[in-house]
Structure formats: C-alpha cells, structure tokens
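User: Show me sequence and structure for the first protein, then do the same for the second.

Assistant: Starting with the first protein.
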Amino acid sequence: MQELLDQLIRYARGMWRYRWMMMAVIWLVCIIGWAAVLRMPDVYQASARVHVDTQSMLRPLLRGLAVDSGAVERVGLMTRTLLSNPNLEQLARMTDLDLRAENPQQMEDLISGLRSKITIESTRNENLYTISYTDSDRNLAKRVVQSLLTIFVENTLGQGRADTDAAQDFIDEQIKQYEVRLRQAEDRLAEFKREHVGMMPGEGQDYYKRLESALAELQQARLQLRELENRLAAQQRQLQDFQEQSSDFTLYGSGESPELAALDGRIRSLEQQLDDLLLRYTDKHPDVIEIRTLISKLERERARIKPAAADSGQQANPVYQQLKIMIGETESQIAGLEVRVSEYEERVARLREMIDTIPKVEAELARLNRDYNVNKANYEELLERREAAKLSKQADISADDVKFRVVDPPRVPLEPSGPPRIMLMSIVLAGAFGIGGALGFLIYQIRPTFEDARLLKELTGHPVFGSVCMVYTDEYLKKRRLALAGLAVATLGLLCVYGLVVTAEMLNLNLLRA
C-alpha cells in the first residue's frame, strides 16, 4: 500500500511540472465545448396518448371454442413495428418530409433520423400508449405525432381483417399438403413392415435391449446349470461315501455272507502254509508257486463276490434309495437346463450375426414412425384450428374487438425540452480536467524525471555516489508564489466562467417559462 501511495505521489509531482500546459488545455477544451453546447438548437417534444380497448363481449363467450384473435398481441406488434421502413416512408409522405430527399441515400438518412427521434412508451396493464417526437420545429413535431397516431390506428384495425383471411388461407393450404404427406408416410411404413417381417423390435425394446436381455437370460441359465452340476457332484460324492461305508460294514460287520467267510478262511490257511514253506524253501519252489497261484485265484473270487453282496445290502437301504432319486432328479434338471442354455446361445448368436442389420431396421422404423406421428399430429391440429378460425372470423365480423380513444391529442409545450445544456456544460468541465490530467501524465511518461536518489538507484540498478540539493533563493521563492497564485487565478477564473454560463442558461430558461 505504501509503495502504491509513493508511486501516486511521484506521478503527481511529475505532472505538476506541466501544470501550465494542462491548464491551457483545460481552458481550450472548456471554451470549445461550451461554445458548441450554446450553439445547439432548442428542440421541442410533441406527444400524444391513446388508449386501446381490447375487451370484447364475445371473447369470454367463445373462450375454448374459437381462436383468440390476439387483439392485445396485435396492438403490441403494431407498436413494435410502427417504426418500420414502410411506416416511416408513409409518415414522410404525410408530413411532406419526403420533399427534402432528392436521392435514395437522403431518403434513408431521413428515415433513420425519424426513427431516432420517435419514442413509443406503453403501460401494458392499462393499454395506454404514448407517442413522442422531438424536433427543432414545433409545428413539424406536432404534425409527425398526428400522422403517427393515424398510422397506428388504421394499420391496427386493418391488420386484424387481413391476418384472419391470410390465416384461413394458410391453414387450408397446409391441410392439403399434410394430407398428401400423411398418406405417403402411411404407405412407406406399411411397405417397410412387409419387407422386414421378423426383424421388428418388441414392445418398448430395441436391438441392444433385446441382446442385453438375451445375454442376461443366458448368463442366468449358465449359472443355474453350474449350480445343478455342483449339486450333482456333491450328491454323487455322498453316494460314493455311503457305498464305501456300506462295503466296510459288510466286510467287518456281522452281516458278512457265509461264502465270503469260507473264502477268507481258506485264504488265511493257505497264507499260513505259505509262511511255513518259505521258512524251508525259496520263492521258486514248486509248492510255493502253487500255493501263491491258489491264493490269487481265491482273492479274485472274493473280490467278485464282495461287490455283489454289498450291492444287495445297499439296495435295501432307504438312504441309498433317496440318494439315487435325488441324483436322477438333478440329472433331469441338468438336461433341461442344457437345452435352455443351448437355445439362449443360439438366440444370442443370431442377434450378434444381425448386429449390422437389426439396428438399421429399428432406426429406419423409428424414423418412419416419427415422421408418421408428426404428420398425423400436425394434420389433426390443423383441422381443429381451421374450425376455430372459421368461428373466430365470424366473431370478428360481428363485432369490433379493438377500440381506440385518444386521451391526449398531439400537443407541443411552449418551452423547449432540450438539449440539457447545464448538464452538458458540467460534463464538458469534468472532461476538460480529465483531458488536461491525461495530457500531463502522458508528457510525464514520455519525459520522466527523478525526484530522489533512491528512485534513480531502483530504476537504473547502479549505486548513486551523491546528490546536489537545490537551494531556493528569495527571488525564486517569490516567483514560485506568483506562479501558484496565477494558477489559482486561472482555475478560479475558469470556474467563474462556468458559473456565468450556467447562470445565463438558467435565466434563459426562466424567461421562456414566463
């Protein structure tokens, strides 16, 4: 903050060196500006007020049956288009202003000047419109406002009838066109459906939704199949465990068959004989070989008889029967799911094969349906509007829905409405000081000076070995005080001239009012 303040003070000191040049520029700008303001001609503003009554007795009765003629909107549109080129050209002919234009360019300038001087204000709640025009000629300003009022009333009344007839003709023409479009859209839609039977999308589903649904069904079926396969494997393991337990029980339990017991006894006896022979002979002895061969035959016979005996015991067990039933049901369900998975896979494959065909068919069908629905909706809407337009036309003929009443006829005050010379003179004075200050700042930027050694060191980056102070003599101080007094007198004189000019303008306004 301190650096910014120091910089502003430095700028002020630098500009102070060119104070006389700044004061001269301020005086020059003020004299030229005030002279231009005083030479501006007086202007007069003519105005008129008109009330537009858009309330009709038939409008509440026909609400919902007939199309609103839009009296309010029509009046509002007329106020917005009152300053169009055709209306302004008509205004120029009515007030003989067109005689001033000798070529098209001058006519364009005349129309632009009229548009810039005309103002239209409205209070929508009360339907009260004020038309104003500003010009240096009082009589011309009054004629222009009168002519604008005439154009406003006549064009608004005539536009309602013309708009109704034009709307009726337009609706009839559009109905004929939409009949042809609707018939063509129906033919295209029927032909397209015949050509693409079997590819039409389902109710509320397009191709990608159908593919997504098929993939979801396939994934669900595969999941159920894996669950059943895991269940079948678990049931088979249970059955195997049960069979092993049943075999062990048959082998070591009290339920062993007599045939197996006899075989086991012979095998144990032969094994005992084999042990005795091996104590005396080698493995190649004929008796040893014969006994081992006999033991092998008996063990094979025992292995053949044992499963049959175990199965006969298991068949009579209810747990075994229940496991077999459950395994059968699971295998049946797996077979059904395998058929379903195969069907879903074929359906997904068919959809994927038609990935480039079905979306195009669906998109084309959607486009045809959209065109058909749009044409149908527009056609039905136009039929309703035509009947409402006929009823509205009869209502417009039977009664006027817009009435005009001139509240204030065109008038022009005796005293001018402008220009605001006092305000303009104040703006000139403020602008002159701004221009003078800007000039002093610009010169200081072009020809900068250094007020102290510290600033010189900061800007150049080199050390300053010393500085010489200025010694003010009495004669210099006297001249300086005289210069300051002269500057104050010049400033005070400028303000006095401003006061005199403003006072003269106020006296002139008071004389005009008197």
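Switching to the second protein now.
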Amino acid sequence: MNENLIRIQQGTHHDPFDWLGWHPLPDGNWVLRTFMPAAEAVEVVGHGLMTRLEGTDCFEAKLSSPTDAAPSHPALRWQDKQAGNWHDAVCPYTFPPQVGDLDLHLLGQGRHHHAWKVLGSHAISVDGVAGTLFAVWAPAVKRVSVIGDFNAWDGRRHPMRVRGETGVWEIFIPGIAVGTSYKYEILNRHDAIVVKTDPYAQQMFMRPETTSRVPNDVPHPWQDSAWIATREQFDWQHQPMSVYELHPGSWRKHPDGRFYSWAELTETLIPYVTDLNYTHIELMPVAEHPLDESWGYQVSGYYAPTARYGTPDDFRAFVDACHVAGLGVLLDWVPAHFPKDDFALAKFTGEPLYEHADPRRGEHQDWGTLIFDFGRNEVKNFLISNALYWIDEFHIDGLRVDAVASMLYLDYSRKAGEWLPNQYGGRENIEAIAFLREMNTVVHGYFPGVLTIAEESTSWPAVSRPVEIGGLGFSMKWNMGWMNDNLKYIEQNPVHRKYHHNLLTFSQIYAYSENFVLPLSHDEVVHLKHSMLDKMPGDYWQAFANLRLFYAWHYAHPGKKLLFMGSEFGQWAEWNVKKELDWALCQFPAHDSIRHVLRDLNRLYRDLPALHHYDFDGRGFQWIDCHDSDQSVLSLIRHGENPDDQLIILLNFTPVPRYAYRIGVPTAASYREVLNTDSEYYGGSNCGNAGMIPVQPHAWMGFEHSVEVTLPPLAALFLQAC
C-alpha cells in the first residue's frame, strides 16, 4: 500500500494535500482522491461512483482533466455507513493554500498586527464555493485536524496542511457556515492527541461549553464615526475623565439569575451612567472565560467576547450605543497570565507553547495560572494583535492592562530559588518589558487618542512616559499609593485622624511623576475589605458623611477618577459576582443622596477646567494649608490654564463644625459655595455658608486677602470667586 495512503488512513500525514485532491497521472490523465472514513460509497456528481482503495477509506476517480471532465472543485455525494443516507460535499483538498506568504512571514517575525484576520476561522468563498477557512499555529506536531459536528468529531476526516516550517496549519472546508462549532485535534510529536479550542476564535459557545464557533464576518453598521473622529484628536491629558467601573454580569441580573444581555445593558446601563455625568465606563474583562468567579481575569478565549451577554455583534452594538450617547468604553485586558484549563492555551500542543516552559518563569504560583512566553515572536504577535483587535473590531477607547507589576519582575511573589534571573543577573523581565513597550507603541501608532492604562503597583519608573525617553509607553497608571494611603486614613476614627494627616498630603510628593488615575476599584470592595460605605467609621449619619467627604477629596485631588459600581449609592455589602447590586437601597434617601453628590461632583469636574486641565501637572494644584492636622482640615486651590479658572476647596475630616475658619485666598473677589457635601440635598446637616462670602483685606498664609468660612462637619466645600 502507498505510504501516503497509509499515513492518511492512520491520521499521521503532515500534508494530506500531497495525496488527496487532484493529482496528474503519468498517462496524462488526472486522479481525484478523497478520504471519507464514514462513507459506504462516494460519487462525483455527473461522473459516477468513485473507487474505494482496498482496505482503506480513500476513494478515487480517474478523469481526463480537473477542468474539462469535471469542475476544479467537483461536487461529491456520499452515503454514510450507518444509516445509509446520502450527503452532499465538496472535497476540501482541491483548493490551493489560502494564507499568503507575506502573512506567514509577518506571523513568524511577530510583526503581523492583524493576525486575527489570518488565523482562526473565517467564513469566505473560494472560487465561488462558500465555506470556512481555518488556520492555526501549532509548531512541531505531526498533524492538526479540524473537528466538529460536521465530521462527527473525527480527526481523520479533515487534516490540515502545514505551511513549511512556519508551524501554521490551514484548510478551507466547503459548506461550513457561520455558527458551526469546531475544535482542533492535534497529534503531537509524542503521538499523543490533544483537543483544543481555537486560540484565535472570535466566538465561543456559552459555558460550560468550550467549543469554538465560526463567527459572522459581516461588518457592523457603525454609527459612531463622529465619536471616532473626535477621539483621534482627544487631548486626554487636559480633558476630564471619570470612569464607572463595572462587571457586566453582576451589575444587574434577571430574577431567575440570567445575565443581562448587551441589548438590555444598552437600555439600562447607558442612561444610568450618563445621568451620573461619567465620561467613560470600564468593563471588567469580557473575553471568554470558563469560571464566573474569576471575574474574567482568567481568559481562555482572548479573541472571543464572552457568550454570557450575547454575540460579538451584540457587543459591537453596545459600544456603538455608548459612543452615540457620548460615553467612552475602556476594557480590562489581561496579557499577564492565563488559566491551566486543558481545553485552551495551556500546553497547546501537549507541551508548553504559549507559556514559558520553565515553571520558574512560566507559572504564577499564587494564582495557579501560566505566564506567556513574551520572548517568542508568535506569542508576542498573539497578544499585540489581540490588543489591536478589541480596538479595531469593537471600537474600544482604551485598554486597562491588568497586573503589569507581575510582568515586570521575574521574582514577583516568589521566594529565593523560585525564580530565574535575566541574562544580566537581574530581576527585570526584559522580554515582557520589550513586549509592553512594543504593544503601547503599536496601539498608539494605529489609534491616536486610544488610551492604555497600567495597573502597576510598584515604583517602576516612567510607566506612563514615552518609549522614546525610556518609559513603558502607557498613557496612564493607576495610583495605588494614593488609594492605599487615603483609604487607610478615611477608615480611622476622626479623633485619631490628626495623627495620620500625612496620609492625605504625602501623595503630592509624587503626584506628577506619572499620569495617574485615582482608582477606587473592585479590588477594594471584596475579600473582607468591606464596601466603600462599610469602611467608614462612626454612626449611620457619620458613615454617609464620611463617604460624601471622601468622594469630594477624590475629585479635589489631581488625577483621573475611577469608581466601582455599587459604590455610587453606598452599598453596604461587599461586591458578590454571583448577585446583582443591592438596587433596593436606592429607595432610601441616604443612599440615593450619594448618587446626587457624585452626579454633581462629576458635573463640576467636567465643567470646570480647574478640576481637570492640570490633572498631571503641578501647576494645577496649590496648598493653602496642609498643616492643620490638629483640626484635620485641608485647604487648597485647583488652577486651570486660564488665571480666572480657580477653585478653592476645603475639607473637614472631623465631625466638629469649624466656625470663622480663616484661610488665605488668591483674589479680592467674593466667593460662593458651588458644592457643599453637607447640604441637606445630599443628606447632610445643611451647615455652611449662605450667599456671598466676603473677602477681607487681611493677609493670611502668604496671601494678601483672606476669608472666614463655616466648615461643616465631615464635609467638603468647593468655593468659586464671584
């Protein structure tokens, strides 16, 4: 028996196109061969039955020419062995390679920035025949096949061709339509068979299913062209940016526990967030993941929006609606690690491929997850293309990159002897640093105005500085220091706060070393850390007053703003991914008043340049008095670009009203309150300053003029010159 035929029959042929399909014969005729293990008989439509090669499931027909005697891609009919039914098919082995040589070269170089358009599955037509092109990177293996319901999950039926030494396997299968389920069956070099979902699958089925799905490649009819054009000119350093962070699956749920769909979130979430005057939402990861409790941070389908909330087109429509409503969309992106689930990326060929082979560099022991091999071109290509994919295909306005610190340090959360140093003996992950710099350079090069934001918790320098001057190239960085210090302060009993006053003021030492976001994120309201409201000391009234005051300080301090869902109405319980937010609390005035104060803080922040123009620049901030620790009072000025754009802010962190409290002021004009968190409208005691606050020609604190004000208890005042 022919060796090619034996290898095809056994499912070990690395390139079945060498034997199957059309092949010339020495006598000038041609032979058409097909391999159908499930078939009792096969015929070429219009030319009669094919001959079964003895002892095999291979059939052949000798014809005079693949173009004269039969079409280049002849229609076949085959009868299944079990039921005897007849089925139509077109032999996939009559089609030439579809992945171009330039694509293969760029993939191998790690410079194919649109790899998702080449790899994965794509419903296309070739020579007028409709079907799906499958392509996957799986180097150093003996065979890769596409399996699914269409071939009874039999890996012998549709083995792919390998494209030289690239490790890329491909096949065009006629008749495979949008929505078809599939996986890859891989016969590795050790003769072990592994079955995997497609790393580049753009759609998957609802968990607990783990199968990939042929996506719909029909372009979405986007309505946000005006938004995209404006985004390209987005002067984000000098514009307001307040972010509502949310987990789509637990913002709201149906009574029976079902998730809200993207369409339902469009109807409910968008008007809710825009009413609160936020500029952006940030979605916790929406890439496909098997475990709800991972919150999306253990990704198994990097290119597939999770099926929990609908189709990829449903997600596009949601983002489109956000943009039309004037709301930006940021997305959590997780290139730092991936789970060990055996159906996905882990040991993709039965051996480490996407992860580093040495567990001292390839595994996060704390998280039980694997670390990408950032030094491998094809892996780097996978991730950089993925960053571009979400922006290009879904019009995402920015990526918040998770766990950057774990990528930067080889000894991250490791003891001595549990990590390998770099080639210079250091702890820096040189490959990951190069990857982050390249990712940021590529994203900003393709998409001006799109943001990249690092969750980076160490003192690594120049995270949000350009690559050209030695930075990592991120637009912004989460200010974890501000968050930790200020939460520690506000949790103190007010009588003790005077001993911790430096926690409020220390951030000004480094506030402009990076472009900072001030995060009050999901991580701060889980794992027994208490909800934002439950962190607050004192009785019921004081807890709400403290929270209103703390949010005012959040907006008074330079930096972009971020708040996690539920915190905007003072949820008492910690966030629980299995439940929706405690929306019933909004029926109580004390809770609803928190939304009122945030709505007005966002409005001031958006409308007044003094509160946002110099978020990253020391010119926008000036202490009036930061030393009044005995009374736990701060007073400061926020400046805009225009000298007239000034706002005076006073914060009283004790429950004691301060009467005739004098501060120096920069102008001789009168002042008025534009926001008082103790207003009865916000549930306060309505202590404050009615009408105009006259300026006195009394030098104070280095200013030629001063004012006397009443400071409400546990409250903030925002004063503007009249």
